[in-house]
Amino acid sequence: MTGATSDPPAGPAAHRAEPPAEESLAELFWAVARRLRHQSRRTLEPWDVNPGHARALAVLTRHGAMRLSALAEHLHIAPRSTTEVVDGLEERGLVARRPDPADRRATLVAPTEEGTRVGAAIRSARTTEAERFFGHLSPADHADLSRILRTLRD
């Protein structure tokens, strides 16, 4: 019997249904984080970069050339992981390494012209992605969620 009240809802509205009472706050948070992560990966596909690459490129386009150790601090990752991220970006022509003029033993990493262009395109795509994801929230809910997330982050 189609349309019976026991049929589950279909389409996007089904995802907005009230969660079961037994669903914990942590489970809800991780479910939203998973959706954001999947959406972010899809958004980044045209540039063949992963979220870690995108974060590093964003830091470098925002702050300019820096040592790998400084980039690791900005990203809150181990220096070895930073090297792997930079290697991936360098292979794609998005960043370049060069000697640090203040200390020739050290290396700076900086976005290339292509990296700056791609970084701007990613920033624009992510802004659109965020507007689509959070756009159905009221201004008050948006402000509350921002406040709550900042509190949890700090």
Automatic annotation (TrEMBL):
This is DNA-binding transcriptional regulator, MarR family. PROSITE patterns: HTH_MARR_2. It holds the Pfam family MarR. Residues 22-154 form the HTH marR-type domain. It comes from the Bacteria. Keywords: DNA-binding. One of its GO terms (biological process) is response to stress. GO terms for molecular function: DNA binding; DNA-binding transcription factor activity. Residues 1-21 are annotated as: Disordered. It comes from Micromonospora rifamycinica.
